[in-house]
Amino acid sequence: MTTRVALVTGGSRGIGAAIVGQLARDGYDVAFSYARNEKAALETVEQLKSTGRKIVPVQADGGSVAGNKHVIAETVKIFGRLDVLVCNAGIYPYGPIDEMSVEQIEQVLNLNVRSVMVETSEAVKHMTKGSRLIYIGSAFGARAPFPGVSLYAATKAALRGFAQGVARDLGPRGITANVVEPGPIDTDLNPATGESARLISSFTATGSYGTVQDIADMVSYLASPKAGYITGAALPVDGGLEA
Ligand code: NDP
């Protein structure tokens, strides 16, 4: 049987690395991008040697159109196909909008939103029936519950509209597009320590942070043939976060 191929952006650390690991254990060959942290990327590859799958890191700046095109082209060059695209790379700017420079606004839009659009546009040229587009949004895509998150919330809300539209465009070709919306997940971006983490935990029904594996498990399901009738959806994995 042909081995299916997945690409995960921002796969060197955190949620992305967990998704790379789960898809490898599910039997995919996996390419993943990273920006700067080559050491973490090589560690991710090393840790997954026992899966027996081919796992290839690709250095690419997700904030540039050239980087977005490069990562898709490299994946197809290396593996000859692309079945699952997981757009995970993202940054979390924090602060009131009047304290953000135009350069900061552009940086966030380029990585959190434009990259998803360019990578999708390039990836679908290579995709066939049964392929999957999976975007890592945020619970803040549904609502901006705290001060200081307007820019981030706007970028994650954009993914909802994009996935719905793409689902319509590509449904007839048998390709699905969905957003996974994590709540607080313990990573470098949002460590589950200190007073602010305790406060954030108190807004969840479980009273806790989630793990990177919680998100990887949802991505694994959406990528599988079982999820063929789920498309255009925004799926929360957030411990019942209410805010
Ligand atoms: P981390 O900061 O732990 O990891 C970020 C990953 O993205 C790294 O692999 C990093 O690569 C890569 N990356 C960063 N900038 C770029 C860039 N310009 N180009 C390419 N890759 C880049 O983040 P998380 O794992 O926590 O977050 C992953 C996604 O999940 C993000 O989209 C985030 O918004 C979302 N999310 C996270 C939540 C959380 O609580 N953690 C909650 C809700 C959503 P490198 O190692 O080279 O720096």
Lay out the secondary structure.
Layout: E1 5-8, H1 14-25, E2 29-34, H2 38-47, E3 55-59, H3 65-79, E4 84-87, H4 102-123, E5 132-136, H5 150-170, E6 176-182, H6 194-202, H7 212-223, E7 234-237
Parallel strand pairs: 1-2, 1-4, 2-3, 4-5, 5-6, 6-7
The structure holds NADPH dihydro-nicotinamide-adenine-dinucleotide phosphate.
NADPH dihydro-nicotinamide-adenine-dinucleotide phosphate binds next to helix 1 and strand 2.
Keywords: Oxidoreductase
Pfam family, one: adh_short_C2
Protein name: SDR family oxidoreductase
Explain what you see.
By secondary structure, the chain is an alpha/beta fold. The protein has one domain (5-237): NAD(P)-binding Rossmann-like Domain (Rossmann fold, 3-Layer(aba) Sandwich), CATH 3.40.50.720. 42% of the residues lie in helices and 14% in strands. It has a seven-stranded parallel sheet, with helices on both faces. Helix 5 (150-170) links the parallel strand 5 and strand 6 (176-182). The radius of gyration is 17 Å and the shape is globular. The termini are far apart. NADPH dihydro-nicotinamide-adenine-dinucleotide phosphate is lined by residues 10-16, 33-37, 40, 61-63, 88-92, 111, 136, 138, 182, 184-185, 187-190.
Number of domains: 1
Question: How helical, in percent, are the residues?
Answer: 40-55%
Radius of gyration: 17 Å
CATH class: Alpha Beta
Summarize the helix and strand pattern as letters. EHEHEHEHEHEHHE
Number of strands: 7
Low-confidence stretches: none
Q: Strand fraction band?
A: 5-15%
Major sheet: 7 strands, parallel
Question: Mean of the pLDDT scores?
Answer: 97
Class by alpha and beta content: alpha/beta
Strand order in the largest sheet: 3-2-1-4-5-6-7
Query: At the fourth CATH level, what is the homologous superfamily?
Result: NAD(P)-binding Rossmann-like Domain
Family: Belongs to the short-chain dehydrogenases/reductases (SDR) family.
Keywords: Oxidoreductase
Organism: Acetobacter thailandicus
Protein name: SDR family oxidoreductase
